[in-house]
Design a protein that fits this description.
Strand content: 15-25%
Number of strands: 7
Oligomer: single chain
Order of helices and strands: HHEHEEHEEHEE
Radius of gyration: 17 Å
Largest sheet: 5 strands, mixed
Distance between the termini: 28 Å
Structural class: alpha+beta
Helix content: 40-55%
Strand order of the largest sheet: 2-4-5-7-6
Number of helices: 5
Length: 202
């Protein structure tokens, strides 16, 4: 049982380690583009990226963090993206009372925000609005990220997930087994909503 637990921890670290370079590569790509377009904006993005990496690496050895800590880290990522997008990107956080101390996997929300920005809002001419929500339902913690963008592609091929969302799904399965759900859908009003439920007994 100790060997199995150690193997699970190692696998979780591999999955999380896969997220950090993916996120860093995308951020550096964006900064590289801004260096040519607006060096001052690129400079501010470097500072924001440094603050974000400091927070990410500080908790790198922990598999879980509180929802409060996860939201604070996600806000740093949003600030980095808003330097680039300006008023074209608005992100709203709606957290129910009494759940700030709930434990969630570290670096859980950032890939969801990144997916909404990169895929959901790509090509959109209107202001991108992303809503991040967390609430308790029965014995579950429900997290959702919804955007007003183009929506997931339709067709028989289903919705495909990239490295960020794929690693997130694998981590959830490793930590919670069948005790979690992950879904992505197109709401009636359009856009994309990603919804995660985690066990959260009271």
């Amino acid at each position: 049982s100790q060997l199995e637990a150690g193997l699970n921890r190692a696998q979780l670290e591999v999955l999380r380690a896969r997220l950090n370079p993916h996120f860093l590569f995308n951020s550096l790509q964006n900064i590289s583009v801004m260096i040519r377009e607006d060096p001052q904006v690129a400079s501010r993005m470097v500072v924001q990226l440094g603050d974000l990496l400091h927070s990410v690496l500080r908790g790198n050895s922990r598999p879980e963090s509180t929802l409060r800590e996860e939201v604070e880290l996600t806000r740093l990522y949003v600030e980095l993206e808003q330097v680039r997008f300006g008023n074209r990107l608005q992100v709203e956080f709606h957290m129910s009372n009494g759940i700030q101390g709930a434990l969630v996997p570290c670096f859980l929300l950032q890939p969801l925000l990144e997916n909404a920005i990169v895929h959901g809002l790509r090509g959109a001419k209107k202001t991108g609005i992303i809503t991040v929500a967390a609430a308790a339902e029965a014995n579950n913690l429900v997290l959702s990220v919804k955007d007003n963008g183009m929506g997931p592609p339709s067709g028989d091929g289903g919705i495909k997930v990239g490295v960020g969302l794929g690693s997130t799904c694998e981590r959830l399965a490793k930590i919670y087994g069948d005790g979690n759900t992950f879904s992505m859908r197109r709401p009636p009003e359009g856009g994309t909503e990603v919804r995660i439920t985690l066990p959260h007994p009271y």
